[in-house]
Write a structure and sequence with these properties.
The protein folds into two domains: about 170 residues, Penicillin-binding protein 2a (Domain 2) (Alpha-Beta Complex), CATH 3.90.1310.10; about 325 residues, Beta-lactamase (3-Layer(aba) Sandwich). The chain is about 40% helix and about 20% strand. The protein contains 21 helices and 19 strands. The strands form six sheets. Strands 2, 3, 4, 5 and 8 form a five-stranded mixed beta sheet that branches. Strands 10-9-19-18-17 form a five-stranded antiparallel beta sheet, with helices on both faces. Strands 1-6-7 form a three-stranded antiparallel beta sheet. The C terminus is likely disordered. This is Peptidoglycan D,D-transpeptidase FtsI. Its main location: membrane. Catalyzes cross-linking of the peptidoglycan cell wall at the division septum.
Length: about 575
């Protein structure tokens, strides 16, 4: 006891001996520690009790995430249900550059599995090194993507993931490329009907809640927030069989005549549906795409040209419908040319005094020009506009051309004359086909469509039935002996049509070496079912006349199409008719 008292007394003396400043500092330090301890205790209570919901929400945001689930893009089919465009499942390999080690032991086998250059892979990871996500390879076959992920597990490569996507595939390749178009790497329509109907085809993506780990990798699917809605299918008016026929014949003609380009359009007269639409040169929508030489353009819809003598039957139809000329009217074309102001309109030779049928048969510029000048120009303009020239089309195709039809008030007399044989006006192949379909449909114009129709819309009457049938009869002479296009004939069928050989306009005026070769026609002429327009741009061989270059393409396409559609012949010889009716020849 005595010893303890001595120690206590000693400490007290030492404390009394300490400076007062030291005692103050010790109390301040102890007070600080006590305040800090109190703050920590309060913060712990606050987080555990008062901020529990907020902190849990923040944790969920860091580990729970929402990801889009791609929707299956709708298929595109022809009018008979044949699939022309479909989406197949593929996988894309993505990486987190912050987790993927850039050493050679990791990247070398990965680059080989991805079929990438090692240096390209390094540069890509370095460029996006600040991000958590970058695609390394898009739209791989699922088996290939699975092998890449197996390799990653085998070599302990971290930061890779496979994501499911869809890739568009076009079974018919180049044959339908210009009409259907294509989608980009994200399966979004970029050309053609894929672009025009992208919203309908694409559908709506779904939404999935997923669990991610600290490395931002998806480790589990938590719940489906919204199911993906597949896109709607699109049924086209085109017929795969007819499309291939037109494609085959056009491609052969382009090669045979060494032409720059060409188009073929086929319409169903009774419904206004486009049954075939092809262009050359073409491209493969399944292959990597490079925009060169305008190969991706649907020239039949987007490109315009002066239609040349294919306008003559339409000019005659206007004159007949207005009563300014009659079927038996005679036109004096002597001496093979006539003056319009300082300009001259001439024929290839003097045809003398001819009837209206001969003007079409022999393709007389003088005869057509004189008829045009006899028409009230406002009425002439109104008829051409009613046929669809210079107007916005109804096909809905992206970039559809309106063509050019100047107001009648701006026409000089020479403009009115040259319009009758297709100069001073520009049209697309589709517009020209629609105008001829109006004649074929007894004067009623139907809106054209690239989609299959379940019900034919009400058309607009442009010409009387009598006028349309009279002009069709005159146009049959073009294909007969002595006409400009006997090569457009189709065995067993009456054909009505018109040739066009157009000098191309350039900077210095009309070229004497560059031509457009045209043929527009219909069959069977007694009750037309199909209209076909053929345009060959700049044939560079020895032949360039429409009757020699475009007419044979028309004949081959129309022949196969009529027989494929089982259209009843209307021009059989008596012996052929007996054989057709009885199944065998009668003696």
């Amino acid at each position: 006891m005595a010893a303890r008292r001595e120690k206590r007394a000693k400490r007290q003396k030492q404390a009394e001996a300490l400076p007062k400043a030291y005692v103050g500092r010790r109390r301040v330090v102890l007070s600080i520690f006590m305040v800090a301890l109190s703050a920590l205790i309060w913060r712990a209570v606050d987080q555990q009790i008062f901020e529990r919901d907020f902190l849990q929400s923040e944790g969920d945001h860091r580990y729970l995430d929402r990801v889009k689930v791609p929707a299956h893009r709708g298929a595109i089919t022809d009018r008979n249900g044949v699939v022309l465009a479909m989406s197949t499942p593929v996988d894309s390999i993505a990486a987190n550059p912050r987790l993927l080690r850039p050493d050679a032991n990791t990247l070398a086998p990965l680059a080989k599995a991805l079929d990438m250059d090692l240096d390209d892979l390094r540069r890509k990871l370095a460029r996006y090194g600040h991000k958590h996500f970058v695609y390394l390879k898009r739209r791989m076959p699922p088996d290939d993507a699975r092998r890449v992920m197996d390799l990653a597990r085998e070599h302990r490569i971290h930061g890779l993931q496979a994501t499911r996507e869809y890739r568009r595939f076009y079974p018919d390749g180049e044959t339908f490329a210009h009409v259907i178009g294509f989608t980009d790497v994200d399966d979004v329509g970029r050309e053609g009907l894929e672009l025009a109907f992208n919203d309908q085809l694409a559908g709506k993506p779904g939404l999935m809640r997923v669990l991610r780990d600290g490395r931002r990798q998806v480790v589990a699917d938590v719940e489906s927030l919204r199911m993906p809605q597949p896109g709607k299918n699109l049924a086209l008016s085109l017929d795969q069989r007819l499309q291939y026929i037109a494609y085959r014949e056009l491609k052969a003609a382009i090669s045979r005549h060494d032409a720059v380009s060409g188009s073929v359009v086929m319409l169903d007269v009774k419904t206004g549906e486009v049954l075939a639409m092809v262009n050359q040169p073409g491209y493969n929508p399944n292959a990597p795409r490079r925009r060169v030489d305008g190969r991706m353009r649907n020239r039949a819809v987007t490109d315009v040209f002066e239609p040349g003598s294919t306008m003559k039957p339409l000019t005659v139809a206007v004159g007949l419908d207005l009563g300014i000329i009659r079927r038996d009217s005679l036109i004096d074309t002597n001496p093979g040319y006539f003056k319009v102001g300082r300009n001259q309109v001439k024929d290839h030779k003097n045809l003398g005094i001819v009837d209206i049928r001969t003007i079409i048969k022999k393709s007389s510029n003088v005869g057509a020009g004189k008829i045009a000048l006899s028409l009230p120009k406002e009425k002439f303009h109104d008829y051409l506009a009613a046929l669809g020239f210079g107007q916005r089309g109804s096909s809905g195709f992206p970039g559809e051309a309106r063509g050019q039809l100047r107001p009648a008030a701006n026409w000089a007399r020479i403009d009115q004359a040259t319009l009758s044989f297709g100069y001073g006006i520009s049209v697309s192949a589709l517009q020209l086909a629609q105008a001829y379909a109006t004649l074929a449909n007894d004067g009623v114009r139907l809106p054209v469509t690239l989609l299959r129709r379940e019900q034919v819309p009400q058309g607009k009457r442009v010409f009387s039935k009598e006028t349309a049938r009279a002009v069709r009869y005159m146009m049959e002479s073009v294909v007969a002996a002595g006409g400009t296009a006997p090569r457009a004939a189709v065995a067993g069928y009456r054909v009505a049509g018109k040739t066009g050989t157009v000098k191309k306009a350039g900077k210095g005026g009309y070229s004497q070496r560059k031509y457009l070769s045209l043929f527009a026609g219909m069959a069977p002429a007694s009750d037309p079912r199909l209209v076909v327009v053929v345009m060959i741009n700049e044939p560079r061989g020895k032949q360039y006349y429409g009757g020699l270059v475009a007419a044979p393409v028309f004949s081959a396409v129309m022949d196969d199409a009529l027989r494929l559609l089982n259209v009843r012949p209307d021009n059989l010889a008596p012996q052929q008719a007996v054989r057709l009716a009885g199944g065998e020849e009668k003696s």
